[in-house]
Specification:
The protein has 109 residues and is mainly alpha-helical. The chain contains 3 helices and 2 strands, in the order H-H-E-E-H. A two-stranded antiparallel sheet has the order 1-2. A hairpin with a 6-residue loop joins strand 1 and strand 2. Helix 2 packs across helix 3 (50-78). The longest helix is centred in the middle third of the chain and has 29 residues, at 50-78. The model has no long low-confidence stretch (mean pLDDT 78).
Length: 109
């Protein structure tokens, strides 16, 4: 059972200032963006490194900071930064079936 007063691993090892927490959230977002570049093309949906990265971010930063890192990553992709798998970006990429697939795995027309 997890105790309610348990601190995230990173905050137990480092200072807990607000600037440090912002740096951790931005670092988590960057880690997710790098992990998105690693892809195993399996039909119908390719597997990216993001699954592993989300687990690592959540385990090290905890629910609050880890969730903030994932939200920052999604916001970066929605605002047009090419951080999503396949160097994609944009709000349309985050909705519907193409959000789960890379451009390489979509049918050619």
């Amino acid at each position: 059972m997890i105790r309610a007063d348990t601190r995230p691993i990173v905050l137990a090892l480092a200072p807990a200032g607000a600037l440090w927490q912002v740096a951790l959230v931005l670092g988590a977002s960057a880690f997710l963006a790098v992990a998105a570049r690693f892809e195993i093309p399996l039909p119908p949906v390719p597997v990216t490194g993001q699954t592993f990265a989300v687990l690592i971010v959540g385990a090290t930063l905890g629910a609050r900071l880890g969730g903030a890192g994932v939200v920052a990553y999604l916001a970066e992709g929605a605002f047009g930064l090419p951080v999503l798998p396949g160097s994609a970006a944009g709000l349309a990429r985050l909705s519907g079936r193409p959000a789960a697939t890379s451009p390489a795995s979509l049918p050619r027309r």
